[in-house]
Amino acid sequence: SKNMASAEKKPAPPSSFEVHAMGQIESCHFPGEDNLYCQFSVQHGNDWQVLSGMESGITQVASVPGGSESAMVWNFPVDLTFKSTNVYGWPQLVLGVHGNDFLNRHVVKGYGSVHLPTVPGCHELHIRMFRPLSSSLMQQFIGWVNGSPPEFIDPKRPALPTGREVTRVESVGVVVVKINVVTRNMSRFGYSTPVHQNVAPHRF
């Protein structure tokens, strides 16, 4: 009877593992640009579910301190908890930096994306931003005149694996994201996770 009682008290195995990411979209450096804000969203596989936190958001507008070449600082908080049963479709942070052109027209300054770190611990991510180029000089000139440079219809396009080989882009700047990752129950699903650690900056 004692064995039966102990068997009844044994907790059921977890039905999923969890990934918690907490940190901030810290800053950006776009040479020659000023007064920029960042729009972010999360892209993940079908098996993943967001338990808590905002899947999208917009930072405040940040400017370069007068007379300097330092970064524009947002320090916008990110706090997300996911659950899943497999690692396929590991969550990505998708970024779009926006501002105004020389005629004060709103334009997209750059896109970027990065997978959330798979190693628990504190991470500093340097994400290289890019923007698509026109297919010809004439289209580039028309876009410049109309204030409508090339941009993606789907803002999550930078996180998608298809179509990259036919998209012409140029590098425009860097966004810095600082994130702390905590995982739970991953070993129960056959995934090994290293001990929590502080990791040197990653550049993507």
Oligomer kind: single chain
Helix content: under 10%
User: How far from one another are the termini?
Assistant: 59 Å
Under the CATH scheme, which class?
Mainly Beta
Verbal overview:
The structure is a single chain. β6 and β7 (106-115) form a beta hairpin. The chain has 2 helices and 11 strands, in the order αββββββββαβββ. It is elongated. It has one domain: Sandwich (Immunoglobulin-like), CATH 2.60.40.150. The model has no long low-confidence stretch (mean pLDDT 81). The protein has 204 residues and is mainly beta. The strands form 2 sheets. Strands 1, 3, 5, 8, 9, 10 and 11 form a 7-stranded mixed sheet that branches. The chain has a 4-stranded antiparallel sheet with strand order 4-2-6-7, with no helix packed on it. The protein is 9% helix and 45% strand.
